Amino acid sequence: MKLITFTKKGIYCPQGKFYIDPWRPVEMAVITHGHADHARWGMKKYLCHHFTKPILYQRIGVDIECQSIGYNEVININGVKVSLHPAGHIIGSAQVKLEYKGYSSVISGDYKIQDDGLSTPFELVKCNEFVTESTFGLPIYNWLDIEELNKRLQNWVLRNKENGKTSVFIGYSLGKAQRIMKAVEGLGKIHVHYSIGKLNEAFENVGIRLPDYEIPDFKESTKYLQNEIVIVPPALLDSSIIRKIPEAATAICSGWMQVRGARRWRSADAGFPMSDHADWAGLLQAVKATEAEIVHVTHGQTEVFSKYLNEIGMKADVIETLYGEDEEEAEKEIIENPGP
Ligand SMILES: [Zn+2]
Ligand SMILES: [Zn+2]
């Protein structure tokens, strides 16, 4: 018997009769994290980490049936032991571990090894079968230390202040935005777009402490923003909102900037390689450490990464999923498409 199978609706556990991050409506869904490609609308029941619950309410609706548990808490679903383990991707993100008759499978969702200071750090979980992402599964991706990266953001803000400029960061609203806030905390007033503010509130309601911020009304005069810090989601790059910000210097925060950061992208003035996914070395480190007998590679550089794993003697295959159409894609698009 297989503990998990791959179906048209998503990753399925036949013994437990539930899915993990399904993309079609099902009875019971275990959700790894709040990004829209993993947490979708239409499930009868949801199970997730306590910190992900308010995000699901925010994004899917307050009328969903949702149970939440803590990290390392084990619950039993139709005889299968189910537990969540920190994935280090965003606040509340979890790897899902299933165990039945001594055999275990771990579904990682999205993950990163680096400790971003906000998300509970990635926990290595040994298992027989590991399902991994591979968003940045090419050797060209190797991230800076978080401290070094944050220092670059801080220096950029300080330079802008000296020059009478407003520091406008473009980063995905769930994950990046909170990391940027944390990185520049104390350097000036932080203003975040409404869409980011809503998610911040959801986190604050479950006890996560974030740096102080304000939500500006872009319909009013925004002169007072000058010299300060503003964070907006990728969809707003080149929008009238950004054009209204006085003396704006813009910076894109995305893992894709690692190989493209040297150039000017669209209308942005700067780029910082900030990613919530593991880099090449991080992926390899995680996969090897699970000691899994079989590795399934879901979204990202699936072909290259699984081929490499096979060449170093691990058994790996590629699984078609509908993940990866969300945050990374939104960022990739604004970076790759030249502006008007
Ligand atoms: Zn994600
Ligand atoms: Zn993903």
TrEMBL record:
Keyword Signal: no
Domain of life: Bacteria
GO molecular function annotation: exonuclease activity; ligase activity; RNA endonuclease activity
Keywords: Exonuclease, Hydrolase, Ligase, Nuclease
SUPFAM superfamilies xref list: Metallo-hydrolase/oxidoreductase (SSF56281)
InterPro entries: MBL (IPR050698), RibonucZ/Hydroxyglut_hydro (IPR036866), Xnuc_lig_assoc (IPR026360)
Protein name (record): Putative exonuclease, DNA ligase-associated
